[in-house]
Amino acid sequence: MPSFDLEKISIPLAAIRRGETVFSFDVEINSKEISEKRAYIDKLSIQVNVTVLGEDIIVKLAVIADSLLYCDRCGESFKNDVKSDVTTLFTPDSLKIEKAEGGEIRLFDSHAVVLDITQEVIDALFLAIPDKILCKDSCKGLCPYCGVNLNNHSCSCKKDEIDTRWEALSNLNLNE
Question: Which letter does DSSP use for residue 36 in this model?
């Protein structure tokens, strides 16, 4: 389970009505780093749609994070809103969890006063940040010889040098 220090986000169960109830949260985080992903979150906007079905509660989260990211190719920082949706079923019935085949199902105490959705928000954040962060799809990255950012400058490095370890491969004729 991903870890990220976030203040508790909870919904008072008394505020949840039959059918669908909508809640909104704006959370200031002040540039917290998300794991090793080189992503920093400043502010979260969270919309929560809560639907009561008998004793079960379906929570649909839409999370938008105001983020500072670092490109994995060129290392430049850029601002971007990352977005994710997560749906979780909360149930007081532990048998439903045992019988479940996939999906997010969490146990909650039916006598609880609040429904803690902090972990769902954290999960949504981790899903929103891509494994490979790019400033743009066409990012050229850094020159492997001189380190110049190829998006901003061209370099005069000789690119046709062949690494001696791979020199034998240049004699292969792949057109046969």
Answer: T
